[in-house]
Known about the structure:
Blueprint (H helix, E strand, L loop, with lengths): L4 E4 L4 H11 L5 E4 L16 H18 L5 E11 L5 E2 L13 H11 L9 E11 L5 E12 L15 E3 L4 E2 L5 H7 L1 H19 L2
Parallel strand pairs: 1-2, 1-3
Antiparallel strand pairs: 3-4, 3-5, 5-6, 6-7, 7-8
Helix pairs in contact: 1-5, 4-5
Amino acid sequence: MKADKIIFATGNADKMREIRMIMADLGLEIQSMKEAGIAVDIVEDGKTFEENAMIKARAIAQELRKRDEWAIVLADDSGLEIDYLNKEPGIYSARYMGEDTSYTVKNANLIQRLAGVPDEKRTARFVCVIAAVFPDDRECSARATIEGRIGYEERGANGFGYDPIFYLPDYGMYSAELAPEEKNRISHRGKALEEMKKVLKQAAEETL
């Protein structure tokens, strides 16, 4: 059975914009859950990024099967790990301080919790895992990270979420200060999606 589209298990418009930019050369239609008309409550009760990403991908794949539709389902679980805070907020990054809390408030809280902590102890990383469920029930995942540290203020307008407080020493700027193309090239999500693209291209050659 051949799938001619990808459904990505997210309703985040900023993520979808990045995803479409990175995966444009696949030649497949890419839809969000909302665009595909899928509304399902997914309980992310996994203990790792891998588990939560696969929970989301499996849930959407199950909904598609109920509708007798076929697509490649992708889902990501990503977050920020701050070493000084025992890798918080980690898998709870999106739900940190409440899902409806603005990231301006979340970012300010994290900066406050690191008050007085020197640069060398402000190490952090973004983690992204992309999970895939294929129409023939095959499953796989790809994981990528980007290392940096937490800054002392928000900077930049090109990113979203925790990007404005994530400083990249090798680039001398914050993640939200990077041009979108550069961010997609080096980011955790960009690298994980590139790895997944390799898997999808190989699958296409094998004809799902």
